[in-house]
């Protein structure tokens, strides 16, 4: 397997969190601040492994800004670049585009959950009522498996609120009649 791995501690932590979320028998995590180091690992990597435990503590401060506030200064071009890196392997976003592993996302903002004919949505998404609001999209992009437990979307999420706002601004731009900003 020619895979270089994930160099970001946060991305590795996100993958572990996702794998734990789909495992019926996930082992218990060590207490916060205490990382279990492999028996052969030197002390420095063990200290680096403890970093993910500290990261969530910063999340509440970042979460204080509403998605509406973040969208006011969001950059759709940055969102498009992030979409191409993180989403385009499974989703298309062109008008009339085909569904891939995931549905085509053209004109998704403001549309009902699971609205595309011909795409087989998970029961988790079919059960969601109402349109894709900006808050819904932000929550979905932050942690799909928490927003819709049982979703088939195998993506850990975008933890950075500005990244989510940029992607949402890009998705908003993919419409003949973009939804008004909050």
TrEMBL record:
One of its GO terms (cellular component) is plasma membrane. Gene3D superfamilies: Cytochrome c-like domain. It is found in: Cell membrane. This is C-type cytochrome. GO terms for molecular function: electron transfer activity; heme binding; metal ion binding. Its main location: membrane. Keywords: Cell membrane, Electron transport, Heme, Iron, Membrane, Metal-binding, Transmembrane, Transmembrane helix, Transport. Pfam families: Cytochrom_C (PF00034). The keyword Cell division does not apply. It is a single-pass membrane protein. SUPFAM superfamilies: Cytochrome c. The lineage of its organism: Bacteria, Pseudomonadati, Pseudomonadota, Alphaproteobacteria, Acetobacterales. PANTHER family: CYTOCHROME C. Residues 74-175 form the Cytochrome c domain. InterPro entries: Cyt_c-like_dom, Cyt_c-like_dom_sf, Cyt_c_1A/1B.
């Amino acid at each position: 397997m020619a895979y270089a791995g994930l160099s970001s501690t946060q991305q590795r932590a996100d993958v572990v969190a996702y794998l734990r979320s789909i495992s019926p028998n996930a082992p218990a995590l060590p207490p916060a601040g205490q990382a279990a180091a492999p028996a052969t690992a030197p002390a420095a990597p063990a200290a680096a492994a403890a970093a993910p435990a500290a990261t969530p503590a910063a999340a509440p401060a970042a979460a204080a800004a509403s998605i509406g506030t973040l969208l006011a200064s969001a950059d759709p071009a940055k969102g498009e670049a992030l979409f191409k890196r993180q989403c385009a392997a499974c989703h298309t976003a062109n008008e009339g585009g085909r569904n891939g592993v995931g549905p085509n996302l053209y004109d998704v903002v403001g549309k009902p959950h699971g609205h595309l004919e011909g795409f087989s949505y998970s029961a988790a998404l079919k059960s969601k009522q109402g349109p894709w609001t900006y808050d819904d999209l932000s929550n979905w992009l932050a942690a799909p498996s928490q927003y819709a437990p049982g979703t088939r979307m195998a993506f850990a999420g975008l933890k950075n609120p500005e990244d989510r706002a940029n992607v949402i601004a890009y998705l908003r731009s993919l419409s003949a009649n973009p939804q008004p900003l909050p």
